[in-house]
Write a structure and sequence with these properties.
globular, mainly beta, 17-stranded antiparallel sheet, two-stranded parallel sheet
Length: about 325
């Protein structure tokens, strides 16, 4: 992949080219976002594809969206296709306090009707709706949980739960510097339940109901363990990341297919020299101290940052002392 980005801290305005051995062989993506007005535009164009295969999006996709703290709406079109798809997809999402609700239109079902322009909008199989409830900050330094319900195309009901747990431990790491007061463990737990609510049978012989569970544990700033267990497959991943300059990350994974009893293995390697390495750990730079531990920060000279993060800062969502990589995402729904 080759990517141009207007600013290293602005991932919403970019142009990239990706090359792959699968279809499409050469793909271009572009996006522009104007935070002052909350308006963004994006496009995806397959520049080179294997003619032997038919791509549903081979003519490219263009989209326009509006995003604010409490509202997101947008639509995509395929301007060069001969199919009757306008729009190709559309969505509307609104947030009210901790509750988020949304609806999406995506015409995938063929309508055999003379007045098909009206029929495709009234066909419930082309619509999906969802509602979610979340507590906590979107920053990885703060605990949070989210619960969601979705009705997909009037045929599948999906319930999901995700929880992010932050655990501080006063553990002395002999490999760390003297001012590091402890370590922070990050634990993520989640599950997803899918069940069919219509009478039709799945074409791919999938079960009517399925349950998937996943968990991850970041033991420290270097090691991360992740695992997922489902009815069709199970996956286990171990990742290691260094914080030198340049920093690098290495991961290995294994996936077992329960139907064939076969196991596939993979690995990944990433080197990053774009920005100064920084991470969330329980040291005086980025530590999340509870009120009864604030005395640990007295008399220590910081090498980076002005002061540690206190629990009161997290409750007030004051993340100005953190590097941009560790702050919550921009307030775009």
């Amino acid at each position: 992949m080759f990517r141009w980005q207007s600013d290293v801290d602005d991932p919403h305005t970019f142009v990239d080219l990706s090359v792959s051995t699968s279809n499409p062989v050469l793909l271009m993506r572009s996006s522009a976002y104007y935070p002052k007005y909350g308006v963004g535009a994006f496009a995806v164009y397959p520049l080179l594809s294997k003619k032997a295969e038919q791509l549903s999006d081979e003519y490219g996709i263009m989209g326009l969206r509006y995003g604010s703290t409490n509202l997101s709406l947008g639509a995509t079109v395929s301007p060069f296709t001969t199919k009757d798809e306008f729009p190709k997809s559309a969505w509307l999402v609104s947030k009210m306090g901790r509750l988020t609700v949304g609806v999406q239109y995506e015409p995938l079902c063929v309508v055999l009707d003379e007045n098909k322009d009206t029929a495709k909008y009234s066909d419930l199989r082309n619509w999906s709706c969802a509602a979610g409830y979340g507590v906590g900050s979107r920053s990885p330094l703060s605990p949070s949980f989210n619960f969601g319900l979705e009705l997909a195309r009037s045929s599948q009901f999906i319930a999901s739960f995700y929880q992010h747990v932050v655990v501080q431990r006063r553990v002395k790491n002999p490999f760390e510097e003297d001012e590091v007061v402890g370590i922070t463990n990050y634990i993520d737990l989640g599950f997803e339940l899918q069940t069919r609510v219509d009478d039709s049978k799945a074409s791919d012989n999938l079960p009517d109901s399925s349950l998937q569970m996943a968990a991850s544990w970041q033991a420290n700033k270097n090691f991360l363990l992740k695992g997922k267990v489902g009815a069709l497959s199970s996956t286990f991943t171990l990742a290691f990341k260094s914080w030198w300059k340049p920093s690098f990350a290495f991961n290995i994974s294994a996936t077992t297919n329960h139907s064939t009893r076969e196991t596939a293995y993979g690995f990944g390697l990433r080197v990053d020299n774009i920005r100064e390495a920084s991470y969330q750990r329980a040291d005086p730079n980025f530590v999340m101290l509870t009120p009864n531990k604030e005395h640990l920060a007295d008399g220590i000279v910081w090498k980076m940052g002005k002061r540690p993060m206190f629990q009161s800062d997290l409750d007030a969502e004051n993340f100005s002392e953190l590097p941009k990589e560790l702050r919550p995402p921009q307030k775009i729904l």
